[in-house]
Automatic annotation (TrEMBL):
UniProt keyword annotations, A-Z: Methyltransferase, S-adenosyl-L-methionine, Transferase
Record GO biological process: methylation
Name of the protein: SET domain-containing protein
SET domain ranges (all copies): 45-275
Biological source species: Acer yangbiense
Amino acid sequence: MEEEEEESKNLEKLLQWAANLGITDSPSSTTNENPCLSSSSCLSHTLTVSNFPENGGRGFSALRDLTKGKLILRIPKPALMTRQRLMEDDHKLSLAVHKHPSLSSTQILSVCLLYEVGKGRSSWWYTYLVNLPRIYDVLAGFGEFEKQALQVDDAIWAAEKAVSKAESEWKEAKILMEELKLKPQLVSFKAWIWASATVSSRTVHIAWDDAGCLCPVGDLFNYAAPGEESNGFGDKISANLQRLTDGWFEEDVNSYCFYARENYKKGEQVLLSYGTYTNLELLEHYGFLLNENPNDKVFVSLDPGMYSSSSWPKESQYIHGYGKPSFALLSALRLWATPPHQRRSVGYLAYSGCQLSADNEMSVMKWISNKCHAILKNLPTSIDEDILLLSTINKIQDFNTLNKLEKVSLAFGSEICKFLEASGLQNGKNGGVLSLSVKSKLSIGRWKLAVQWRLRYKRTLVDCISYCEEIISSLSSKNDPG
Ligand SMILES: C[S@@+](CC[C@H](N)C(=O)[O-])C[C@H]1O[C@@H](n2cnc3c(N)ncnc32)[C@H](O)[C@@H]1O
């Protein structure tokens, strides 16, 4: 409770601080007038900060009905936390950073952020910094147990790569952080994960710095995938070319401006597209995923001969999150299922997305369906088991204890035991109540994300099997009308 009160006070201070910097949700403001300068909050016309437990937590809701395309928030350049700004304000930082030209722009921004945190209350950005999340669930922070809970090799590999990339970037940046005499806890790997996750999940794009910049108040928008509102999950992907983000820097007003991506009713959450991401990419960069993500992709491994039967790049051959094989995957498999000596003559049909013959289409559909079945069979748990496990994880999170452990362990056997082992928790001999440490609570959150991810993956494969079976049955009935 105390924590909540403190968070709400900090937020109030942030909105007032932002108002003093000219950040505003007033649609009529220009650079020359700052209607919020004397106000106690930069928000009063368009947006208010609310909590959306199921959709990103802290975010914005509409204060009134909003129209698509309307300017909803403006952050003047001096309020943007850029590398340039931080270094201009601190000569010592600037001198030290310039001695390390091999560090990447995002490594430098992460160091600058930690350096600013190290200043505590004396930082000009203090009011902003105390409102940043304390933890992130990005892949780079996944421990061994959480990585394995992803179950799918590609995903485990992506998590391992994220961890090792973070480790090597941290080691490279450590010398600079030590030169800057950061406190040991700010030089730790844990602090590095925090800083680099802040950078990857909260920066916005600016043309003059490829690290992007931190955008106070503007970074409170939660995410909706681009195209979501026009597609509907399961519908055909809209051919409309939409802008992938809803905010950009505008030179004429010297501000970062955010626009409503659709019409919103008063009270609805106002969301922002950060770009097009698969669920695994969302986990990697932002530490969350969407149950219905129109941009999700499931890659299935093909035999080398299948890749070489067409010129489609590997990354274009996948199954859409809603279960349909991608255009390129279908095209490649149609060619592969054609005898090699006939491939040239039907190539133009395959590349334009046409079916080649009923037999060819049926063998392609059977191949994909068998492949999906085989993948599902090889995974350690079924969809039903994952659903049950998720509901148990939810209960554990609700009560913050592991209750009636023996009963739970019976249902989920090894995975629960592995969690207990990984968290250093002992299974009470009598199956009694175990209180969870902060570390275990964090681990449970990541474990849940891993289970949600693999469940979505499995559902896509099941949807793909249904898709293939529908095509097979419709082609069979055409072939054999009797
Ligand atoms: C730019 S911040 C958005 C504001 C954030 N909720 C906060 O409290 O500061 C991005 C982070 O918000 C969370 N988030 C954004 N959109 C989400 C969504 N649709 N579902 C779940 N979490 C989301 C993720 O933790 C992500 O890393």
